Amino acid sequence: MAETGEFGGRDSGADGFLSRARTVAGPGFNRWLVPPCALAIHLCIGMAYGFSVFWLPLSRAIGITDPVVCKDLSLLGALTTTTCDWRVSDLVWTYTLFFVVLGASAAIWGGWLERAGPRKAGVVAAFCWCGGMGIAAIGVSMHQLWLIWIGSGVIGGIGLGLGYISPVSTLIKWFPDRRGMATGMAIMGFGGGAMIGGPLADLLMKHFASPTGVGVWQTFLVLASVYFVFMMAGAIGYRVPAEGWAPAGWTAPTSAKASISSLNVALSDAHRTPQFWLVWLVLFFNVSASIGIIGIASPMLQELFGGRLIDAPSVLFTAFDDDQKKAAAAVGAGFVGAISLFNIGGRFFWAWLSDRIGRKPLFATILVAGAVLYGFAAPALAGTTLGLFILVFCILASMYGGGFATAPAYLADLFGTKYVGAIHGRLLTAWSTAGVVGPLLVANMRDRAIAAGVPRSDIYPPIFWVLAAMLVAGFVANLFVRPVAAKFHMPADDRPVTVETVAGATVATSTGTSPVVVFAWLAVGLPILWGIYMTLSKALILLK
């Protein structure tokens, strides 16, 4: 008889191919097969960051060449109209829904994920994410915005949440000696999804475009099909280590060596600790300070530097003619590409560095450095020194990504590894909240300044100072993080053994390079290299 688990309901038994019991690694399994499985899923769901490539084509889905604009169209009217083109402001709600639903679904079903295992969660994520894109394709073909919202935004958002957290606890258990690096590799994939999916979607839309259509619904279906294959392969490839497994020669750090707990905190107790809410604030402020400004990176650069971007330093942004607007937009796109690369690289670099210096010092470093860059460097360089300004924001983007990648390892250090996936799911509500607060704050300050007649080149320094203050607040919250009190630790018989002498603990000690390992890494590595090439080709315009 199956036992009742920590999360309620029945624990997964050995019945069924997708059950957690069927994912326990067998003899000779190589743990380096798990990261490419995680990357396969994260590279697909990471396309959520690249959905902006669809907004302009969808805004002329009826007019094809020029939007069919209906004045005074209400939101309800936009959701159901079949005769008016959609406004970009209505379409971008899909993006907002992505990350609100991501956080909510990760928090709600994180406990189920720990019980069911990463394979079942990955399969459900594949059906939700790809099925949601299929529903969105129907919405585009019928010109029903509400179907796009429900399909990609809600159902796809659930797939985002489950797909995002599905590999977290698994990777941390496979790599207790390299927690930051392991989660950094997977979450790097989420940042890289748009780097691959964005250019691919653009190519597909150009291929399917016709005098009667913009090619979006066909692109949705092709992407959904490709993503489904990759996500299912990643989910089926997931394995969990045998209970008590640890890498050969590795022992858990003692409290004297590092702020890493070998004890576990139950999911039901984690949110009762001050540590959870302090880390929640750290992530919230780190994300809020950058997500809004990254979202308007291209117009920000154009407004701050104006004609300096196109060898016409005396021309203001507001005086650009059509050709100058196109030239400046190309530079802005290169800026966005450079930011994307640093965002992705930062997810791995900063998480890897946290294995060397510790999670708390790492967050202290990126929060202080970010506050200095926002508070002093960015305002001083705005509109004056283009190269250094771009470098500042590339560094900021890397630290933004690094915060995401380091958070799961931070939680594992504080709460143990047993329920870290579910705890991480609840922490992601900080991301959802920041995804609303950050963009609204930046957009509101920008719009107020424009309405007040402030020159475009003077709009952003006050915004930078507010964002710097947010990072200072995150730094203060991080200062108060301490080890979790002993009263929250689980009883000794519920603690996982961390020695390699446990029965079955030696089943996953293979470290050699097999053809399967090589193939798995090539399957995710080649798309990443293609995405880097496409992004660099846009970013190189910054060097001209």
Give a written overview of the molecule:
This protein is mainly α. It has two domains: 252 residues, Up-down Bundle (Growth Hormone, Chain: A), CATH 1.20.1250.20; 236 residues, MFS general substrate transporter like domains (Growth Hormone, Chain: A, Up-down Bundle). Helix content is 65%, strand content 0%. Helix 14 packs antiparallel against helix 15. The N terminus is likely disordered.
Whole-angstrom Rg: 24 Å
Determine the N-to-C terminus distance: 68 Å
Strand content: under 5%
**Structural class given helices, strands, pairing?**
mainly alpha
Q: What is the CATH C level class of the largest domain, in words? A: Mainly Alpha
Sheet having the most strands? none
Domain unit count: 2
* Full CATH superfamily name of the largest domain: MFS general substrate transporter like domains
Under CATH, the topology of the largest domain can be stated as: Growth Hormone, Chain: A
Q: What proportion of the residues is helical, as a percent range?
A: 55-70%
> H/E order of the elements?
HHHHHHHHHHHHHHHHHHHH
Poorly predicted runs of 5 or more residues = 1-14, 493-508
The rough form would be described as: globular
Number of strands: 0
CATH architecture verdict of the largest domain? Up-down Bundle
Number of helices: 20
What is the mean pLDDT? 87
SSE topology sketch:
Blueprint: H1 34-45, H2 55-58, H3 75-80, H4 88-91, H5 93-116, H6 118-142, H7 145-165, H8 168-174, H9 179-208, H10 216-237, H11 267-270, H12 274-295, H13 297-305, H14 322-357, H15 359-381, H16 386-415, H17 420-427, H18 429-451, H19 460-479, H20 515-539
Helix pairs in contact: 1-9, 1-10, 1-20, 5-7, 5-17, 5-18, 6-7, 6-10, 8-9, 9-10, 9-14, 9-16, 9-20, 12-16, 12-18, 12-19, 13-14, 14-15, 14-16, 14-20, 15-16, 15-19, 16-17
